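Work Package 4 report. The design task specified in the project plan requires that, given a folded chain encoded as structure tokens, an amino acid be chosen for each position. We show below one input record used in the internal validation round.
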């Protein structure tokens, strides 16, 4: 295991931060390359929830994207998502009947989305391909939900399935392994009290 604690300089040597981000390789079959990110309360090992967890996820995703363009995909409860975005002036477009695409939300808007839709499952796509309409994928998202990412993720830097209530993100990527994920997110998590662990 390799780990990075972001506790302050005055912390006791054996005192761990209240939150842990476990980064691990997932075995989803020979045809899929995946990394799991699990955000937990360190002591209880229960999924981290609420505002603090939303703040961590909202800072993590732009860092994970590494400056690449990204979008957020919703495929359920679209009326609520639409009303929420309109009220907060979060840009979105509707696609393929039952899919909403939010182009590159700000960190503040990501925070609001992770807070409000903590109980929902939604997705993100990052890379040059995210800048243009992916009609094929968006049609599949509308019909089959986030399973559609499995046939499309190789066109992107990564596709991610987000389940905030479970404290879990599944990252599908041909190019990002656990070391890459830790390297990208570590600077963004310095502002939080999070223990980052890469497990094998």
């Amino acid at each position: 295991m390799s780990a990075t604690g972001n506790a302050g300089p005055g912390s006791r040597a054996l005192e761990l931060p209240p939150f842990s981000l476990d980064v691990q390789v997932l075995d989803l079959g020979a045809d899929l390359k995946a990394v799991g990110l699990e955000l937990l309360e360190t002591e209880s090992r229960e999924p981290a929830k609420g505002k603090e967890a939303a703040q961590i996820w909202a800072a993590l995703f732009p860092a994970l994207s590494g400056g690449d363009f990204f979008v957020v995909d919703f495929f359920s409860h679209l009326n609520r998502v639409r009303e929420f975005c309109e009220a907060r002036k979060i840009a979105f477009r509707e696609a393929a009947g039952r899919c909403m695409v939010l182009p590159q939300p700000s960190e503040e808007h990501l925070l609001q989305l992770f807070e409000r839709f903590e109980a929902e499952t939604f997705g993100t796509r990052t890379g040059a391909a995210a800048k243009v309409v992916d009609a094929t994928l968006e049609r599949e998202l509308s019909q089959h939900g986030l399973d559609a990412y499995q046939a499309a993720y190789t066109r992107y830097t990564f596709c991610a399935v987000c389940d905030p209530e479970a404290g879990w993100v599944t990252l599908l990527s041909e190019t990002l392994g656990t070391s890459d994920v830790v390297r990208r997110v570590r600077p963004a998590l310095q502002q939080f009290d999070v223990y980052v662990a890469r497990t094998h």
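The chain has one domain: 18-199. Validation will be extended to a larger panel in the next phase.
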